[in-house]
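Handout, section B. The chain below has 77 residues.
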Amino acid sequence: SWEKPLGGYFFWLSLHSNIDTGTLREKALKIGSGFQPGALFSPAGDFKNYLRLSFSHYNESQIWEGVERLASILRVK
């Protein structure tokens, strides 16, 4: 799930609670995509199923390509 940001440069994506975005990030980097795992922004290491995506640095076509790449690794079981 996600909500449209009201400002800033990033938005947060909440994935199913059993997904560790730290592990998922390694897969994303291998396919040329990336994000920041939520646990990096929690002093207690919470938010392991959250990820932070940048929308300010990329153009629309690059964002769609990144979304497709992320979707491809999320569909793998």
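Note. The chain has a mean pLDDT of 91. Compare this with the example in section A.
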